[in-house]
Amino acid sequence: MSVNYGSKRTVVGAHYGLRDWLAQRLTGALMAVFTIVVLAHIIFSSGPIGYDKWAGIFSSQWMKTLTFSVIVALLYHVWVGMRDVLMDYIKPVGLRLVLQAFTIVWLVGCAGWAIQVLWRL
Fold first, then answer.
1. How distant, in Å, are the alpha carbons of 27, 28, 38, 82 from that of 76?
2. What pLDDT, on the 0 to 100 scale, is given for residue 9?
3. Secondary structure letter of residue 10 according to DSSP
4. CB 73 within 8 A of CB 65
5. Domain span including residue 105
6. What 3 state SS string does 64-107 have?
7. What is the total count of domains within the chain?
8. DSSP state letter for 121
9. Which of 22, 57, 64, 107 has the smallest count of CB within 10 Å of its CB?
10. Do residues 32 and 66 make contact, with C-beta atoms less than 8 angstroms apart?
11. How far is the C-alpha of 13 from the C-alpha of 9, rounded, in Å?
């Protein structure tokens, strides 16, 4: 005689729920605010837009901090989205893990490049 305590749960797919949904919305909102701030700088500035103008926008410490926060938010936003897509559509576990590892390496590389560009301004 066997006893069944609850149903057997399959741990496949994007079952992270509210936490990831909220993270996607918050990071998306932060990126939208950043876009509005940068557009306001561009719209309300005078003269042609060249390297000096772009360097001026990102030269202040508060803008560098906001940009760094947006880079981190973007990376997390992309990671949550890619992880969910890979978990939903790539069923072989080995292939999914390889693709997830590639995604992490790629995102870390993009982060390093973005930070290097930001602090070089």
1. 8, 10, 21, 10
2. 56
3. P
4. no
5. 18-120
6. HHHHHHHHHHHHHHHHHHHHHHHHHHCCCHHHHHHHHHHHHHHH
7. 1
8. -
9. 22
10. no
11. 12
Measured distance CA(68)–CA(29) in Å, rounded? 15
Place of tokens 């990071």: 27
Instruction: State the Cα–Cα distance between residues 75 and 106, nearest whole angstrom.
Output: 10
Q: How far is CA 78 from CA 7, 74, 109, 119, in A?
A: 33, 6, 13, 22
Amino acid letter, 39: L
Return the structure tokens found at 85: 């897509």
Residue 1 lies inside a defined structural domain of this protein = no
CATH number of the domain bearing residue 100: 1.20.1300.10
- pLDDT tens digits, 28-75: 999 999 999 999 999 998 888 888 888 888 889 999 899 999 999 999
Please give the C-alpha separations between residue 65 and each of 72, 83, 85, in angstroms, as whole numbers: 11, 27, 30
Tokens of 4: 């069944």
